[in-house]
Amino acid sequence: MLSFDPDDSRYIEDLRSYVAIPSISREADRPTMQAAAEWVAARLDFAQPRIVETGGHPAVVAGWTGAPGAPTVLVYGHYDVQPTGDLDEWITPPFELAVADGRLRGRGVTDDKGPTYIALEVVRQFMAQEGRLPLNVKFLLEGEEEIGSPHLAGYVRAQADELAADLVISADGAMWRPGEPSLSVASKGLLALDVEVTGANRDLHSGRYGGTVANPLHALSRILASLHTPDGRIAVAGFEDGIPELGPTERAEIAAVPFDEETYRADLRVSALTGEPGLSTLERLWTRPTLEINGVTGGGSYTVIPRRAAAHLTCRLVPGQQPDRVAAAIQAHIGALDLPGVRVSLTTEPGAVPAYTIAPDHPAIRAARQALADVYPGQDVLLARIGGTLPATTLFEEALRAKTLFFSFSTSDELLHAPNEFLRIPRLREGMRAWERLLRLLAEGEHRLTPG
């Protein structure tokens, strides 16, 4: 059994230096992203780390294969982070790690710098204390996950032999909630689209031209309103093609998960929960697709008929849906609307991915459940589903023919992507003990992975 530090001070100082690098993949310059990659590579100095080009931000790859005949796992994570959002909403500067009330606060601390640090520290301690790892471990930490991993697929496919593994373990992908240990057996897919409506060849004075030409904002409003029925159902024909019906067994399993809808509502400070009728909140959250309007632009607070209006849409997809077919269904739906006087275009963003699942009885899930049960004795390990998307999972299954196990010690309430993102300090050492146990279980005994 590894011996970890008696307190968290060194771990916090390590994370302080990591969080201080503003590695926002959507806007950071190359030196900033390079600095973050170098920080990660330095933690893998025992495993011949390399900072490699992907066509976008660099990735870090490494590997220790000193256990002939043993299984091989690929540890995946990312060093890039989301933009800060409104700085006025942050209690403390986002790239200065703050410590208060048993929490670490800073951009990226829970998504995904803290969780990846936990995994890296465990393998470092194996090497420092035992001189070896219990199985072969490879590493792939990218710098573009927060922008949809646009260059990851090309790199993984080109380097499939180098990255080959019996299992991928993702340090990304939060646990369901802080009150109990959990593992995710599914994550939703993602499709992002942009709708643009154009009218006249310039912005128009609303007094001189109002009532005589089409207003792109009016047309866009009609488009957006048409996407759902008044009771909350998605109104796009063909959008749900391929989705299997939610059966009584699955509904019973979800109903057995402790979940208080009133607590959920109160925490969000909304007057009511809404969505597709006939389903519980958890059924909608875990098993149903979504079509969300994320942003609308056009005109402003002045008397103008804008020449252009636009909206950004995202769809979270469930098993059975294919992104290209969903995009085609939305295109056909919009194309069928009567919108005189304007032109409408729909553009699909690159990086769309289908939903991902791993069987609840997969050997990796069994091993991970045992590892969590050992670290959290007396607590049931919940099998949950991620409402978010991890683009790499389906890629690894296709290119490496390996399933991905989500093993993160982030939790979904830690303000991921929002101001004041935080990580609970106890999760550091809890996560380290669980990672140690998981790697040992996968290496030998009844939960051993089958090599090759």
From TrEMBL:
<keyword id="KW-0378">Hydrolase</keyword>
<dbReference type="InterPro" id="IPR036264">
    <property type="entry name" value="Bact_exopeptidase_dim_dom"/>
</dbReference>
<dbReference type="Pfam" id="PF01546">
    <property type="entry name" value="Peptidase_M20"/>
</dbReference>
<dbReference type="InterPro" id="IPR011650">
    <property type="entry name" value="Peptidase_M20_dimer"/>
</dbReference>
<keyword id="KW-0645">Protease</keyword>
<dbReference type="InterPro" id="IPR051458">
    <property type="entry name" value="Cyt/Met_Dipeptidase"/>
</dbReference>
<dbReference type="Pfam" id="PF07687">
    <property type="entry name" value="M20_dimer"/>
</dbReference>
<protein>
    <submittedName>
        <fullName>Dipeptidase</fullName>
        <ecNumber>3.4.13.-</ecNumber>
    </submittedName>
</protein>
<dbReference type="GO" id="GO:0016805">
    <property type="term" value="F:dipeptidase activity"/>
</dbReference>
<dbReference type="InterPro" id="IPR002933">
    <property type="entry name" value="Peptidase_M20"/>
</dbReference>
<keyword id="KW-0224">Dipeptidase</keyword>
<feature type="domain" description="Peptidase M20 dimerisation">
    <location>
        <begin position="187"/>
        <end position="338"/>
    </location>
</feature>
<keyword id="KW-0479">Metal-binding</keyword>
